[in-house]
UniProtKB/TrEMBL annotation:
Upper classification of the organism: Archaea, Methanobacteriati, Methanobacteriota, Methanomada group, Methanococci
InterPro entries found in the cross-reference section: NosD_dom, PbH1, Pectin_lyas_fold, Pectin_lyase_fold/virulence
SMART domains the record matches: PbH1
Source superkingdom: Archaea
Domain Periplasmic copper-binding protein NosD beta helix: 146-290
Name recorded for this polypeptide: Periplasmic copper-binding protein NosD beta helix domain-containing protein
Amino acid sequence: MTKISYKPLIALALAVFLSMSFAYAAAGGEKGTNTNYINSLPYTINDSGKYLLNVSESGLNGPAIEIIVDNVTLEGNGHYIEGDYIHNGYTQDCGVRALYVSGLTIKDMNISGFASGICFMGVSDSTIFKNNIPNSDEDGIGIYEGCENIRVEQNSISECMFPLYISTAYPYTIPITNVEIVNNEIIDSGLGITLSGNSANAKITSNDIINNSRGICAYIATDLKITSNDIVDAYQGIYLYMATNAKITSNDIVDAMILGMGIYDSNDCDIHGNKISSYGIDLEILNNTDFKESGNKYNDSNII
């Protein structure tokens, strides 16, 4: 009988296994998952999967990270990206930019020094969660025409001209629909939360908006809900222009410098259960139809 030695076969199999493992590690992946590591910037994500930032860099030109494929999770992983503080256009000079894709989650990123921290255009079914975005030249988070089903939650944004900006370009033919803005902190900035152009079914809920020139502004918005937000030390608390079917309820507007709440040229708006205190006008209502107002508490009787 001929004896067969299995030792060479075992050694060969082990060598093949080790070579595959080293090759995978060199590619920046995590064994047994579809997790990828971003080890240098700028970086383009063109394959679906989970991506962890694995480097901190400053002095970057945007976009630092661009996503051009569906179904991506991007996590900051304790690192930061910082731009060069040179304005090169708010949809170009971005920390993270995604155009016409879906199924994204952007979370735990630390982004500063770009014209826009995070920029979405034509993005759907996606979440922006728990990011820290100070010192953007224009937008902290920008959500532009064609976006739908976007949730923006638990982000901290400061020292931005437009901390959270939802906007369609003139002539406003491409809408933004179903954006939820929940439990964010916006401080020491310009226009707080802004909806501009053509938005529908936006929900703005339980945000802390402190020491901004305006708290919440909406221009040409339909089916808008603004609920349970705390707005402190704004020049103007809540400002609506050409809104339709807006419900503004249970908000607390404290120490507005000029105007607590202003509703202009709007239709079918329901304002109830809010607390409003202003050094100027608490509530101003002009050129509205089907307007309902009840159960609000004012600092004084300064209502127009």
